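Format notes (please read before filing issues)

Several people have asked whether sequences and structure tokens are stored in separate files. They are not. Every record keeps both together, in the order shown below: the sequence lines, then the token lines. Line labels are part of the format and must not be stripped during preprocessing.
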Amino acid sequence: MNNIFILLGPTASGKSKISYHLANNFNFEIINADLFSIFKFLNIGTAKPSKEKFNTYNHFLFDKLEPNEAYNVSTYCFDVTKVLNNIFKRGKTPLIVGGSMMYVYQLLNGLNHEYNLLDGDSNLIKFIQNKYSNEQILHSIYNYDNKLNKKIDVNDSYRIEKLLERLISKEKLVQDKFIGLYNEEKYNVHIIFIDIHDRKHLKVNIKKRTQEMLNNGLINEVKLLKEKYNLSEQNQSMKAIGYKETLQYIDNKISIDQLHALITVSTQQLAKRQMTWKNKFIVDCSVIYPELDLTNVFKYISQILK
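Then the structure lines:
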């Protein structure tokens, strides 16, 4: 049986720290499950691992795309499958780590709405999503057929993309194109979730981390990316928390104090949403934040791998 371990939890809760503790004690190689860490050069705002960490541990699905490219959950699922096969062939054990909960959920449960898209269709969808905001896209779709987008949240880029695929593709729907790790008999999935027992402590940590990112050069990082790749808020990479707010600051739309406040509040809201995902997963073992005592996790993993 090929064991797959998945470490989930809200932002700033210590996932990276825990992952390296586990990698030091078990035969783990780390697979990224944070959407925006997949983009190159988004380092400070995504709290991406340092060069030292990259050199010390095997990491996968980091720095895969240019900042002006687009990505989706379907591609992620197939990318992870390739990486898993690579890791298992070398006799190692994968540890998937991140906070992009919807991506992990689809990875586990499969994709039920895949279309046979022509290359031109895919390019058109990418063009639309890069050029127009979600609100503009949904408004246009509503004008075309007011029954289509009533249940789609304006922030749900994945469902908007799937709706565009449905409208643009002339090919038939392919059911269960990716069946999900849970439906693969060769995999045994184990989920470890970081529970937040002290939300006030997490909020303080998020505020502190925001200030550290600004001190470490987040603004300059975004400036350089914007100039080099001609980026705007419409680019997928710039929709990341910390980057979309910094673009507003660079464009003189907000002050430095407002920038800090916006990033902090947006990150806290993200953490709250991430915590609600726990009920959608089959959690095998938990870690309590802020203590992060790994005793039970070590026992659990040892029993599985013995």
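For reference, the curators noted about this record: The two ends are 12 Å apart (CA to CA). The mean pLDDT is 92.
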